[in-house]
Amino acid sequence: MTRAREGTGIPAPLLIPAALGIAFLVLPVVGLLVRTPWSDLGTQLTAPGVGDALRLSLVSATLATLLSLLMGVPLAWVLARSRVRGRAVLRALVTVPLVLPPVVGGVALFLVLGRQGILGRWLFEQFDVTIPFTTTAVVLAETFVAMPFLVISVEGALRAADARFEDAAATLGADRWTTFRRVTLPLVAPGIAAGAVLCWARALGEFGATITFAGNFPGTTQTMPLAVYLALQQDPEAAIALSLVLLVVSLATLLLLRDRWLGRTTAPAA
Amino acid sequence: MSLSARVVVQRGSLTLDVGIEVADGEVLAVLGPNGAGKSTLLRVLAGLLLPDRGSVVREGAMVWDDDGTHVPAHRRALGMVFQDHLLFPHLSVTENVAFGLRTRGVRKPDARAAAEAWLTRVGLDGLGGRRPGQLSGGQAQRAALARALVGDPRVLLLDEPLSALDARTRLTVRAELRRHLAEFAGSTVLVTHDPVDAMALADRVVVVEDGGVVQAGTPAEVNRHPRTDYVARLVGLSLLPGTGAGLAVRLESGGTVAVAEETSGPVFAAVRPESVALYLARPEGSPRNVWPVTLVGATPHGATVRCELAGEVPLVADVTATAFAELGLVPGASVWATVKASEVAVYTR
Q1: Segment 145-174 of chain B within 8 Å of chain A by CB
Q2: Which residue of A has its CA nearest to B88?
Q3: Which residues pair with A160 in a beta bridge?
Q4: Which residues of B touch A182 (CB under 8 A)?
Q5: How far apart are CA A227 and CA A212, in angstroms?
Q6: Mean pLDDT across the stretch B158-174?
Q7: List of chain B residues whose C-beta atoms are within 8 Å of the C-beta of residue A178
Q8: What architecture (CATH level 2) is domain B3-234?
Q9: Distance CA B221, CA B237 (A)
Q10: Does B90 touch chain A (CB under 8 A)?
Q11: Under an 8 A CB cutoff, do B90 and A174 touch?
Q12: A50-109: per-residue pLDDT in tens?
């Protein structure tokens, strides 16, 4: 007790659960590293299908992030800056995918974009386009699940940015679109970058909506998380190796984010 | 009139209802305490805020009216300087100043050249490559002024342009601002809570209190005949233009004021009305500033009477109602006014 108070200042009733929490979060990762078949790692990672799954994961997560940027940044602006009625309802709708189980999201996407779906039937009849069980479906499922992370992050950055800079731009002859491009966007760029990284990481790990809406076809819709899950049933060693790859990518993302967040505190000058 | 406006805005419990008129080349100061609605008025003039009722007319053209006319801020060809400069942090100083020209379609090299020229005019040559964060407060406010004026606006709106600066910087920037305003051909509206800004920079003053105009006139008129206690407390500073000569200031009106601080060049000697004492006979003893003056007007406010005094050193004095009665002062009476040298503030002009 005395030592804790003098040493770290953490009371025992907080220290013990906190230590348990750390152990609970760190031990599985340690376990993964301990069980990794380091000697066979090369073989495991070069096994047929692994490269495809990794490539598909990276490409679809990146496309989903781009799609989220295209739609999410304007959406965040509307939520943060416009005076449209029912903004609170709009924000609630946007955040639904955050709390919705991804599998449910996948089912919902299927109902809308599937061949019998409201939009899907029309797409199929008019353009002969089928979305479910294609790489497009992977990207859409990931976008559905990951975009809210970007929207929330960018909206927060917009609210934190001083809107009077936009007033100043208006008095300098800039219309709202010019102001958005030349003032607002650069001011919240660090927030957008952080949101994009979060969004990308979420898209990379997407499982439920993807397997429901896009299926699990090696080469076209089997992303890394799906490959890990499948491998665990047949060849646990391969599952560990694949997990290790995802772990490395996640840690890299975390490092990138940390730099971004540190950069964010210095970026907007008074 | 180049700018005339009648503005009614309801903001919470405050109803702002103000009418102003500003001619070309004229500087109008809107003076009032914080929360009186001054900045709201300026935002309406800029087009950043829609009034509930009223009209804003520029150069004979309606830019806002009850009938639905609304010219948005970006098409009003105005320049605005904000209290905390609001230079865009992601652009260099030159890019900031060139911003308004670029949005109005000026080619990049031309816009940069014009921006550099204005930076030189406000004394910032060589600093154009810096970020706003690397400028001092005074430099940033000068850059903001250049950014507002580079587009040759017809109307200049200044929102507390000096109040974020420290006292020393405020003096120099105020003097420079005075020079630029004298050269500016359009109409200027200056919003401030500092009577010294209003007195030093404006041709006319409108005092706004609780959302309404309580007094309007030239700085001298408002100073000498305050209509409310608030105005009397707020203004009342006698600003005497002159030339500093060591521990004395030679006034343009002919008199000499002894001061406690050595100065040189064009200055204002500023005397607060409560620092002035009046005597029927020339007082003996220490005060270094003793002037014969004539009482030309007296306005009672509260327990004191504000006396307007003419002479080589024109002053405004506050004396208690009792003292006023005991001295038997009537307009036209000759009295002696004294002020301690230490009570005279000196400002560079």
Answers
A1: 147-148, 151, 157
A2: A165
A3: none
A4: 99, 103
A5: 14
A6: 88
A7: 74, 103
A8: 3-Layer(aba) Sandwich (3.40)
A9: 12
A10: yes
A11: no
A12: 888 888 999 999 999 999 999 999 999 999 988 888 888 999 998 889 889 999 999 999
pLDDT at res. B22 = 92
Residue B348: C-alpha distances to residues B55, B136, B191, B200, B248 (Å): 39, 20, 21, 11, 14
* Cα angle B186, B188, B193; round to 5: 175
| Domain layout of chain A by residue ranges | 1-35, 44-266
Q: CATH 3.40.50.300 in chain B, residues?
A: 3-234
Best CA proximity match to B94, nearest among B109, B84, B81, B83: B109
- Tokens 């089912």 sit at which residue? A107
Please, what CATH class does the domain formed by A44-266 belong to?
Answer: mainly alpha
Domain(s) of CATH 2.40.50.100: residues in chain B: 238-348
**How far is residue A162's CA from residue B87's CA, in Å, rounded to a whole number?**
12
> What is residue A225's three-state secondary structure?
helix
- Can you tell me the ipTM of this complex? 0.76
Q: What chain B residue is nearest to A190 in terms of C-alpha separation? A: B90
Residues of A at the B interface (Cβ-Cβ below 8 Å)? 162, 164-165, 167-175, 178-179, 182-183, 186-187, 189, 267-270
Residue A102: name the closest of A67, A71, A65, A140 by CA: A140
- Give the whole-angstrom CA distance, residue B214 versus residue B196: 18
Partners of residue B40 in chain A, C-beta under 8 Å: none
Whether A187 and B104 lie within 8 Å, measured CB to CB: no
- The pLDDT, as a whole number, for residue A269 is 37
**CB distance A269–B89 less than 8 Å?**
yes
What is each CA distance from B191 to A200, B222, B341, in whole angstroms? 48, 16, 31
Please name the CATH architecture into which domain B238-348 falls.
Beta Barrel (2.40)
Decide if pLDDT at A116 tops 60: yes
Structure tokens at B59: 């150069």
Give the pLDDT band of residue A260 (cuts 50, 70, 90).
Answer: low
* Inter-residue contact A270 to B86 (CB < 8 Å): no
pLDDT the model gives residue A21: 95
